[in-house]
Write a structure and sequence with these properties.
Layout (H helix, E strand, L loop, with lengths): L2 E11 L8 E15 L4 E6 L12 H12 L7 E7 L9 H16 L6 H12 L2 H9 L2 E7 L2 E7 L6 E7 L5 H6 L7 H19 L6 H4 L6 H4 L6 H10 L4 E4 L6 E5 L4 H14 L3 E7 L6 E6 L1
Parallel strand pairs: 3-4
Antiparallel strand pairs: 1-2, 1-11, 2-4, 2-5, 5-6, 7-9, 7-10, 8-9
Helix pairs in contact: 1-2, 1-3, 2-3, 2-4, 3-4, 9-10
Length: 302
C-alpha cells in the first residue's frame, strides 16, 4: 500500500459534568493522507494553514513517527496532506483529531498491527486528552479514564435523532489558560452534583431519555470558573435552552458552545445567533450531528 486517506471527526469533551472523562464525536471532519514518496513534505489546507508547522515537529508527523517506533519500523519518506475543517483551540478536539487520524493512517500503512486500545494509549501519550481521542477514534459518546498505566473506556451509543448546534466564537481559549482558572479543590456539594449528573447523562444517552439532558448536562466543576474567560457563556446557554435545546454546555475547554437538540435544530441555532449578536460575540453557528463512527480509512492506493 502506497497511500492511505483517513477521515477523523471532531469531538466535544466534558458534555457538561463529565470533566476529563466524557467525550462525543461530532460531524466536523479533518482528512489526513499519508503517501510514501521520495521526500518528506507536508501540505495543509483549511484551518491552521497559516500557523501549523510543516516540519517534523507537526503533531501529525510526530504521531506517525511514534506509531512506526512502536511497531519497530523506520519511518519512510512521506508526503502528508492535511485538509482541516475543525477549528483550532476552540474546544472541538482538533489536536486529538490530528493525533488519532495520523495514528489510524500510519497503522493502516503498517498492516493494522495495533488495536484500538493501543492507538488510544499512544494518542494519550502524545496529546493527553483521552476523552477527545477516544471519541474521535471510536465515534459516538465514550466514557474513559486513566488508572495508573491502565486505560479504561466504554462506548455509549447515542440516539440517532440527536443533533448539535455548535457556536464557534471568533476567539480562542487555549486549554492551558482555561485550566489555570480552575480551583485545586471543590466542595463536597459540587462533587456530588457532578457525579450524579454524569450517571444521569449516561442513562439519558444509552436509554434515549433525551428529556433528562437538560439536568444531566449541568456542571459546577469547570464552567462557572471558565466564565471569567467567557462572560457571555451562561447567557448563550440560556438562549439555547429557551429555544428548545435539550442541553447546552461549553465544549471542552472552550470557547465553543454546544447545544444538543432533537431533529429540528433551526430554532436553537437562530436563538444562539441572535443572542451572540445582542451580546457582541462574533462567531459562526454550525448545525451538525453526532458522528456514530470514529476515524476511518476512506481510501487506499497502491
Amino acid at each position: 500500500m502506497k497511500a492511505v486517506r483517513v477521515q477523523v471527526p471532531a469531538s466535544t469533551a466534558n458534555l457538561g459534568p463529565g470533566f476529563d472523562c466524557m467525550g462525543m464525536a461530532v460531524k466536523l471532519f479533518n482528512y489526513i493522507t499519508l503517501e510514501r514518496d521520495d521526500h518528506f513534505e507536508i501540505e495543509i489546507r483549511g484551518e491552521g494553514c497559516t500557523e501549523l508547522p510543516r516540519s517534523e515537529c507537526n503533531l501529525v508527523y510526530r504521531s506517525v513517527r511514534l506509531l512506526y517506533e512502536t511497531v519497530g519500523r523506520e519511518v519512510p519518506p512521506l508526503r502528508i496532506r492535511l485538509e482541516n475543517y475543525i477549528p483550532l483551540a476552540r474546544g472541538l478536539g482538533s489536536s486529538a483529531a490530528a493525533t488519532v487520524g495520523a495514528l489510524v493512517a500510519a497503522n493502516e500503512l503498517n498492516g493494522r498491527l495495533l488495536s484500538p486500545l493501543q492507538l488510544i494509549k499512544l494518542a494519550n501519550q502524545l496529546e493527553g486528552h483521552v476523552d477527545n481521542a477516544a471519541a474521535s477514534l471510536l465515534g459516538g459518546a465514550v466514557l474513559s479514564l486513566v488508572e495508573g498505566d491502565q486505560l479504561v473506556f466504554t462506548a455509549i451509543k447515542v440516539p440517532a435523532s440527536l443533533r448539535a448546534v455548535v457556536f464557534v466564537p471568533g476567539f480562542q481559549m487555549p486549554t492551558k489558560e482555561a485550566r489555570a482558572v480552575l480551583p485545586e479543590q471543590v466542595s463536597r456539594a459540587d462533587a456530588v452534583h457532578n457525579a450524579a449528573r454524569v450517571g444521569l447523562l449516561v442513562v439519558a444517552l444509552m436509554g434515549g431519555r433525551l428529556e433528562l439532558l437538560r439536568t444531566a448536562t449541568q456542571d459546577r466543576l469547570h464552567q462557572p470558573y471558565r466564565q471569567k474567560l467567557f462572560p457571555e457563556m451562561s447567557a448563550l446557554f440560556e438562549a439555547a435552552r429557551e429555544a428548545g435545546a435539550l442541553g447546552a454546555f461549553l465544549s471542552g475547554a472552550g470557547s465553543t458552545i454546544l447545544a444538543l437538540t432533537g431533529e429540528d435544530p433551526e430554532p436553537v441555532a437562530k436563538a444562539v445567533d441572535a443572542a451572540a449578536t445582542r451580546l457582541g460575540v462574533s462567531g459562526q453557528t454550525i448545525i451538525t450531528g453526532i458522528s456514530q463512527y470514529g476515524a476511518r480509512v476512506i481510501s487506499t492506493r497502491e
